Amino acid sequence: MRNQRIQGIGMTSQRTRERLIARLKEEGIRDLSVLNAIRETPRHLFVDEALASRAYEDSSLPISHGQTISQPYIVARMTEALLEGGPLQRVLEVGTGSGYQAAVLARLVRHVFTLERIEALLSQAQERFRELGLRNIRTKYRDGGMGMPECAPFDGIMVTAAPEGIPLALVRQLEIGGRMVLPVGDRDMQVLVRVTRTEEGYEKEMLERVVFVPLLGGVA
Ligand code: SAH
User: Fold this and answer.
1) Widest Cα–Cα separation across the chain
2) Domains annotated on the chain, with CATH
3) Nearest to 179 by CA among 189, 171, 190, 187
4) 173 in ligand 1 pocket by Cβ < 6 Å?
5) Is residue 117 lining ligand 1, measured as CB closer than 6 Å?
């Protein structure tokens, strides 16, 4: 029963998932470890049952509390951009949402830490991690703009909600050489940016235009 739920049937079956992988390749995702992590992560368990049949379309979907689960292409692109410089051990995610991005990361890095400001979303995500047996994800209910100094430094940080500028509190929690991938900008115009921490400060590269929900202050 449990396995069947995870494996999916019909529109959530392995065949449907393979079509998504083929599409991500067409869109330019090259990293096979990232494609595999997406192949192995049952996205249909991260959306409402009513939307499960659309889980393997390459589109963002609504989750509760006015939030969204990112489009698979964006999850793949951000993960690929984070891992490009080599394997990572400790990655912080800001904006757990459904938990999907954290679940994908958990298959690729040793430890994942993820922060969410809406408690109900976080507890749903925790339940999914348990069901999938993902034991290398630590969660915390908090305003993620402050990061997680008690577990820093991280060699990777991924922010999945958009701040208007690069949050320096997060840059400071990166190791020298560590990387952060995040959308930056206001509601209508955001760019995916990769920040690399240096001895003196940081370097930044612009990757592509994206649309994310805003990074908000405080907890809900
Ligand atoms: N990574 C998520 C996508 C989440 S959408 C997924 O895979 O489903 C962005 C999430 O960021 C929302 O759940 C929102 O509540 C959360 N968020 C926004 N501002 C935040 C903040 N300051 N701290 C923590 N989480 C935040």
Assistant:
1) 54
2) 66-210 (3.40.50.150)
3) 171
4) no
5) yes
Indicate whether residue 213 lines ligand 1 (CB < 6 A): yes
- Catalytic entry in 59, 60, 70, 123: 70
C-alpha to C-alpha distances, 89 to 99, 107, 110, 111, 169, nearest whole angstrom: 19, 11, 5, 6, 20
Mean pLDDT in residue range 205-212: 96
Separation CA 10–CA 17 (nearest Å): 10
Listed in sequence order, the residues at least 6 apart from 173 whose beta carbon sits closer than 8 Å to its beta carbon are 92, 147, 148, 149, 152, 153, 154, 157
Specify the pLDDT at position 1.
Answer: 62
Structure-block tokens of residue 101: 């991005």
106-138 pLDDT per residue, tens: 999 999 999 999 999 999 999 999 999 999 999
Q: Is 98 exposed, middle or buried (0-12, 13-18, 19+ CB in 10 A)?
A: buried
Measured in residues, the chain has a length of 220
CB atoms within 10 A of CB 106: 23
Q: Is 13 part of the annotated catalytic residue set?
A: no
Q: Which of 132, 131, 101, 128 is nearest to 114 (CA)?
A: 101
8 A C-beta contact, residue 192 and residue 210: yes
Identify the three-state secondary structure at position 168.
helix
Is the pTM here over 0.85, yes or no? yes
